[in-house]
Write a structure and sequence with these properties.
Low-confidence stretches: 6-19
Structural class: alpha/beta
Mean pLDDT: 91
Order of helices and strands: HEEEEHEHEHHHHE
Radius of gyration: 19 Å
Distance between the termini: 43 Å
Strand order of the largest sheet: 3-1-2-5-4-6-7
Length: 224
């Protein structure tokens, strides 16, 4: 018998075995300290999928289709500054087809329709949004018993990368960002006033407990 390559053997051990179509649900999650959070949920499903796209993401999905599998790992997806939950729909679909529950959110106050929150606000709001969505998925979602609560990960892009790092336990060092802008004022976050807003709000001196870490997150993928 031929031996499996090491990377293939690892992949078979780590990734869920199921593969197939994807179902989709769209909902809103209450946030005790802010506006409701719009959420899209992709998940493995055996329900029929149409031949033509039937979603704003141009994907054919089984809308409210029956979920397939149990003890499914869950991955949250956090978009960049001014994005929305559909910004990484391709990644969410790939995860669902591989046997994951993929949960993408639109961050209130920092999305393409509502981008009024200043950086000093959304740097604190975004990690809290993640925590609220995890709470909902594990205690309020009708299919919550299908989730393996010990296997929760997060993917973040740009401002979502920041969100993922903080949600997973990181504490921002705003002082280093201020020093960086003093040396490189042409940097995007410097010339647009983002770091200046953080400095003026004294975000640098917040206690670590204010950053809304979530110990349930066991893995993170960060993209910039």
């Amino acid at each position: 018998m031929k031996r499996l390559p090491a990377f293939l053997l690892i992949a078979l051990l780590v990734y869920p075995a199921s593969a197939g179509g994807a179902g989709f649900q769209r909902t809103q999650v209450p946030d005790p300290d802010g506006k409701p959070i719009e959420v899209g949920i992709w998940y493995p499903s055996n329900s029929p999928v149409p031949h033509e796209p039937n979603t704003p993401f141009r994907q054919p999905l089984a809308l409210a289709g029956e979920i397939r599998g149990t003890a499914l790992p869950m991955v949250l997806l956090s978009h960049g500054d001014g994005g929305w939950m559909g910004g990484h729909a391709d990644t969410a679909l790939a995860l669902a087809e591989a046997g994951y529950i993929a949960v993408a959110l639109t961050h209130p106050g920092n999305n393409y329709q509502d981008n009024d929150a200043p950086p000093s606000r959304w740097v604190l709001d975004r990690p809290r949004h993640i925590k609220s969505v995890i709470d909902h998925m594990l205690s309020g979602w009708q299919e919550r018993e299908r989730i393996d609560g010990t296997r929760i990960g997060i993917f973040g892009f740009s401002a979502g990368g920041y969100t993922a790092l903080v949600a997973a336990g990181g504490v921002p060092d705003i002082g280093r960002a201020i020093a960086h802008c003093a040396n490189y004022p042409g940097e995007l976050v410097c010339r647009t006033g983002m770091v200046a807003d953080l400095a003026a709000a004294d975000i640098e001196n917040l206690p670590a407990s204010d950053w809304q870490h979530d110990s349930r997150i066991g893995a993170a993928v960060i993209a910039a």
